[in-house]
Structure formats: C-alpha cells, structure tokens
TrEMBL record:
Keywords: Membrane, Transmembrane, Transmembrane helix
Protein name: DUF1232 domain-containing protein
Annotated transmembrane regions: 31-54, 60-83
Length: 94
C-alpha cells in the first residue's frame, strides 16, 4: 500500500501539475482536452461503485499510469514551457 501511495505522490503529483499547465497553454495539442475528459469519466465510472475492489485498482494504479502516459505524449514545447515556469517558481522560493 505504501508503494501505491508513493506512486500517486510522485507520478500523479508531477504529472497533474504538468497537465494543468498544458491545458492552459496556448499551443496545447488538440487531443489533450478530449483525452482528459475521457480519463475523468473513467475515474468516476459506475463500475468503481459496483465492484469496490476493481474501483480501487482503477483509482490507485491505472489512473496514475494513464496520467503519466498522457504527460509523456505532450509535445516538447509544452514540456519546455512547464520546465521554465517551474524553474522560476523554485528560484523565487529559494
């Protein structure tokens, strides 16, 4: 269970920030919003409530892996823009 929580913390935390930046980016890919909408529907699908064990596996294992897959498919200019913004934030905090 600790490994699953660590997976959520590292993968989902970083990838969610990157995807949030990518959604607001002016040159985001056209497939990004539909992919995230499908992922959101997958996260709240009725099967999660009907079969709790499968729902738990979905939420804690599959969702972070799919989020990471979407984040790795982002174009380089979006990822570079996120890296610049994150670097500026780190410099301000230090």
């Amino acid at each position: 269970m600790k490994r699953i929580i660590a997976l959520w913390r590292t993968v989902a935390g970083q990838d969610l920030r990157l995807l949030w930046f990518a959604i607001r980016h002016e040159n985001r890919p056209g497939w990004l919003l539909p992919a995230l909408a499908v992922l959101a529907l997958f996260a709240v699908e009725p099967l999660n409530f009907a079969v709790p064990l499968l729902g738990t596996i979905d939420e804690f294992v599959l969702l972070p892996l799919i989020l990471h897959g979407i984040a790795t498919m982002l174009p380089a200019h979006v990822v570079d823009g996120y890296a610049r913004v994150a670097d500026k934030r780190l410099r301000r905090r230090a």
